Amino acid sequence: MQLSLVLPCYNEEEVLEETAKKLLSLYENLIELSKISSHSKIYFIDDGSNDKTWDIIETLSNKYEYFSGIKLSRNFGHQNALLSGLLTVDGDAVISIDADLQDDTSMIEKMIDQYNNGSEIVYGVKLNREADSIFKRTTAKGFYKIMHLMGVNVVYNHADFRLLSRNVIDHLKEFKEVNLFLRGLVPLIGYTSSTVSYDISERTAGISKYSLRKMLSFAWNGISSLSVTPLRFITTIGFILFISTLGLTLHSLWVALFTDDAVPGWASTVLPIYFLGGVQILSIGIIGEYIGKIYLEIKARPRYIIEKTI
Ligand code: UDP
Ligand code: MG
C-alpha cells in the first residue's frame, strides 16, 4: 500500500526539522515491516509562510526521496491548505496530520491496520487534552456540544488527524464548497469508518497558529456551512414573539375597554421597541451571515492556489 502523509505548515520553521526526523524514522520502520510501499511520500504544504518554512521543505525534499512540498501562493488557512494536499497527492490512502505533531504518530500504524481491515476512513480521536490550555479545552468542548445541538454530525474530539482512502478522496473532490469545514464534510461521504484514540502531547516548539479570531471564525464556519438551525431559531423567536404580542394586545384592549386601570405607561411603549429592534437586528445579522456565505459560494473562487510543487 502506498501511503501519503499531508502536513499543512504555516510558519513552522521551529518544529519542521524535528517533525521530519520523526516521520522519517517512522516511514523507514513502516517500510521495513512492509506496511507501506517504499514509494510512499510525505507532503509538506506551505500555507504561505513568511519564515524559513519553504526553505526547510526544499532542503528536506532534496535530501530525502520521501519528502515533497507543495507551496501555496499565499496563506489560505489550515482547512484550505489541508484540502490542497488531499486533492493533489497520490497514494492508496492519505493521512492528514498537523505539522507540530501534537497528535500521536504511533497511531499511523494503527490507522493503516484498520484501513487494511476495510475502513475507508479512520478518525484520530483525542482522549486526553491535558496538553492543551484550559481555555482551548473548554471552548473545544462547548464547540462540539453546540455542533451536536445544531444537528451537525462531527466525531467528538476528532480534529484533522485522519486517514482517507482513495475512494473517499475521489468523492471529497465532488464537494465544491468554498466555506470549508473538513471534519463536518468527511462524515457526509459515508463508507465504513473507524477510530483510533490517543492522548495529545504539547507542541515541541513554536506557538499555536490558531489565534482566537481564527478559532472563532473556524467555529462559526463549521456551524453555518453545515447547519441551518440558526435561521430556524430566528423563525422560532419571531413566531413566539408574534403570539405573545397578540396575547398582550388582547389583554391591553380588555384593560382599556373594561377597567379603569389603563395608565399609558412609558415602559410598555419604549421597552418593546428596543427589544424588537434588538431581535430584528440580530435576525438580519444572522441572515446576512448566510447570504454572505451564498455570495462566496456563488463566486466559486479557487479554494487554494498552488505556486509550485517539489
Ligand atoms: N496552519 C496552516 N495555516 C494557518 C494556520 C495553521 O496551515 O493559517 C497549520 C499549522 O502549521 C499546523 C496546523 O495548521 O500544522 C494546526 O495549527 P496549530 O497547531 O497552530 O493549531 P492548534 O493545534 O493550536 O489548534
Ligand atoms: Mg497544534
Written description of the protein model:
It is a single chain. The protein has 310 residues and is an alpha/beta fold. The chain folds into two domains: 3-134 and 144-209, Spore Coat Polysaccharide Biosynthesis Protein SpsA, Chain A (Alpha-Beta Complex); 229-298. It is 51% helix and 15% strand. The chain contains ten helices and eight strands. It has helices at 16-32, 53-63, 78-88, 107-116, 134-149, 166-172, 182-189, 212-226, 229-258, 267-299, and strands at 3-9, 41-46, 67-72, 93-96, 121-126, 158-165, 193-198, 306-309. Strands 7-5-6-4-1-2-3-8 form an eight-stranded mixed β-sheet, with helices on both faces. Helix 9 (229-258) packs antiparallel against helix 10. The two termini are 22 Å apart. Magnesium ion (MG) binds next to loops.
**Which range best describes the helical content: under 10%, 10-25%, 25-40%, 40-55%, 55-70% or over 70%?**
40-55%
Computed over alpha carbons, the radius of gyration is 25 Å
What gap, in angstroms, lies between the N and C termini? 22 Å
Give the class from helix and strand content and strand pairing: alpha/beta
Strand order of the largest sheet: 7-5-6-4-1-2-3-8
Query: What CATH architecture of the largest domain do you see?
Result: Alpha-Beta Complex
Mean pLDDT: 88
What order do the SSEs take from the amino end to the carboxyl end, as H and E?
Answer: EHEHEHEHEHEHHEHHHE
Compute the number of strand runs: 8
Catalogue the unreliable spans: none
